[in-house]
Amino acid sequence: MSDRPPSDRDSPESTPPAGETPPLDPVSSGSSETPGESASPLHSTADDASCQTPPPPEEPTGRATFPTARRVRLGPGLLESLIWLLGVFVVQFAAAAVTVLVALFSHLTPDELANIDIEKAVTEAVETYSVEIVGGSILGFVLVAILATFLRLGRSTRRLIGLRPMPSIHVVQILLVMLPLAILSGTLHVYTTQFWDWLIHQVPWFAQFDSFQTIEMVSELVDRSSLALLFMVVAVGPAIGEELVFRGVIGRGLIARFNLLPGVMLTTVLFAAAHVHPAHALALIPLGLFIHFVYYTTRSIYGPIFLHLLNNSWALFALASNTEIDEAAAIPDQVMPPQIVATASLSIIFVASWMWVSRSRFVNAAGEEWSPGYDSLELPPANVDVIEARHTPSQWQLSLVAVALMSFYAFFLGVIGG
Asked: Which residues pair with 63 in a beta bridge?
């Protein structure tokens, strides 16, 4: 099954004169590799000025790299990634502060403002307009995240982060894996919270982190607002903003510099750290890794955004529901039954294997997979002669997926009905 990659209007598309090497994907100045040769990964942007063309390998590696005269923006290194993480906190705090000021000035008369007790007024505003403040914080973060992403990666941002629709098969896979993944993440949260409670008894100073417990904050908002508004604040906003920042920008830079697995691990740790509370952050690491796996297999930023959206939506639904199974999936007070945990784990493994087989790859006429010369999840430029290819899984693989999912939902529905 194959499709041509989407057009990239951000990349050079002019046809060079005969005899010249076509300018294809940006790597670094001085690169002159031919299709079928494997490029050396970029270890540091400081080496660009003195970069020499590496000798070709003795045998083709099956990954084709292409030269260009224009240099690509790799994205942040580790230090800049830490600055981006700090920026996430700063932007959300600033947006929340602006929302508080707007609430104050829009509901107080000039005489009241002249005699205002700032500390008391801010405290009352936070209690009265908690949903609006959280919403303003998230809205500000999303807007800044979109702007910062395009400013950081430049005019080729859409191609570099994979801003393109997902194939329908990937949408189906994400829908199938969402609930087992959410259940397993919720169960892990139970254990990390239990460990955190034990740690607080040993070191009471750690209790101050409990004020950053996101789940408890959202639980308080459920009774004060409609689910539609909370859906935008808790599910849609964080899914867009966090995936653009962490998977789209930070992940791109770290993977390019440290290679795929170390880059994904570093990105996931920073993503977890953005959620502040240690128990919550630790429980998010497996989820963050799987979200990045979805990004790898779909080669579309919409993949991680969609899975993140579904996961947060489930957590919100669980908090608003009164059923035992929903509360257990989102609130750390009890462990899921072992048969649900086991079948959820198997479902994730088998769906992941299916996603790996059907992952999007870009290959040339010789069957060589396209690469920009460094580890990356970006799309090839429009003037690269490749097609998008996906393998079809075997019948036994699909059978394992079906059996695991049916077993999971049978146990899951049984607990709900019981």
From this structure: 369
